[in-house]
Design a protein that fits this description.
Helix content is 41%, strand content 20%. With 218 residues, the protein is an alpha/beta fold. The protein has a 7-stranded mixed sheet with strand order 3-2-1-4-5-7-6, sandwiched between helices. It has one domain (4-214): 3-Layer(aba) Sandwich (Rossmann fold), CATH 3.40.50. It has 8 helices and 7 strands. The radius of gyration is 17 Å and the shape is globular.
Length: 218
Amino acid sequence: MGSRPQELRQEYESEDRAAHYRNNRWTRSPRARRTDAKEQSIVESFLHESINAQMHNGEDLTRILDLPCGTGRFRNMLERNCKQVWSGDASREMLMQTPPTTGLQMSAHAIPLADDAVDLILCSRLLHHFEHAEQRMTVLQELARVSQRWIVLSYFDSANFQAWRNRIRGEFRGRFPMTQKTFANEIHAAGLKEHKRVYIARGVSEQVWVLLEKGTVH
């Protein structure tokens, strides 16, 4: 169980894989381009909600951590909305493929930043790589520790056609969907509450995006 983060890092420490993510992962087909456009739109809408909530309290949203940043897919959009964007990824090869930036090699399981170091963390397409609650909880607790208030995160939901089809066919792609109840329990245990969720294609696709808020959960 404990080796999965290391296995995942090795999986992405490939120059060819990093180049694939940079050059054609999100442009290779109409479906890939639609998914990228939809995810960019979802994340930006969550940013706007966070920024408006901060302004309502007389505060600014000035620091974002993109972890894992991959090859910088969200970088331009994040910079349009925030003064300081910090990038981090466990894979050195992924960081080498990002646009010129101050990216740092780091793991979401042990973020080398102080408590409340940033206003918001974007954590894209990571949580579904972990089968066991202990692995996910370590990530969620680290995100909650380092973010002062907001987390934009994606995970795989198990209540949809895609997950059902994979179970029926016995297909395993190294991705682990979970129930909405399990997700709710885990974020609650990490001291987070769900502010909003958006499905890529509800009932069809596993991918779900959520805006989480740090604070006392009742």
